[in-house]
């Protein structure tokens, strides 16, 4: 149970820190008429919605890219490039010494 509460607490702190960094909300302190301090929080819902949509689109692009990469099998297995000749063998070396 403590581990679950620790994970929830860490996720909450991470969400609050990311939201503050991305400008999802703004916290300000204002003096009240009685001389006490009051805390004012402004939430920018449009920015949150736009950032979440961008994140979902980026996640979908990554998943699609990984799926495309998995569907293309390597020719002749993963070790084929190890035993293949180098790519720059247009002019293979010739033996210039005559045989006897």
Secondary structure: elements and pairs:
Elements (H helix, E strand, L loop, with lengths): L1 H21 L2 E7 L5 E7 L1 H27 L8 H4 L17
Antiparallel strand pairs: 1-2
Q: How does the overall form come out from the CA principal axes?
A: elongated
Order of strands across the biggest sheet? 1-2
In N-to-C order, the SSE pattern is HEEHH
**Strand portion, in percent?**
5-15%
How many helices? The count is 3
* DSSP helix fraction: 40-55%
Mean pLDDT: 82
How far from one another are the termini? 85 Å
- Secondary structure: number of strands: 2
Query: Which structural class fits the helix and strand makeup?
Result: alpha+beta
- Major β-sheet, in short? 2 strands, antiparallel
Overview of the molecule:
The chain has 100 residues and is an alpha+beta fold. The radius of gyration is 30 Å and the shape is elongated. The chain has a domain at 15-72. The chain has helices at residues 2-22, 45-71, 80-83; strands at 25-31, 37-43. The protein is built from three helices and two strands; from the N terminus they run αββαα. The termini are far apart. Helix content is 52%, strand content 14%. A two-stranded antiparallel sheet has the order 1-2. 1% of the residues are buried. β1 and β2 (37-43) form a beta hairpin.
């Amino acid at each position: 149970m403590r581990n679950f509460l620790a994970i929830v607490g860490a996720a909450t702190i991470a969400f609050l820190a990311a939201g503050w960094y991305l400008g999802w909300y703004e916290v300000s302190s204002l003096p009240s008429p009685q001389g006490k301090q009051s805390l004012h929080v402004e939430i920018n819902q449009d920015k949150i919605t736009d950032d979440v949509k961008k994140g979902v689109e980026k996640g979908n692009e990554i998943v699609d890219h990984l799926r495309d990469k998995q569907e293309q099998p390597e020719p002749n297995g993963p070790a084929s490039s190890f035993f293949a000749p180098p790519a720059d063998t247009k002019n293979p070396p010739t033996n210039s010494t005559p045989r006897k």
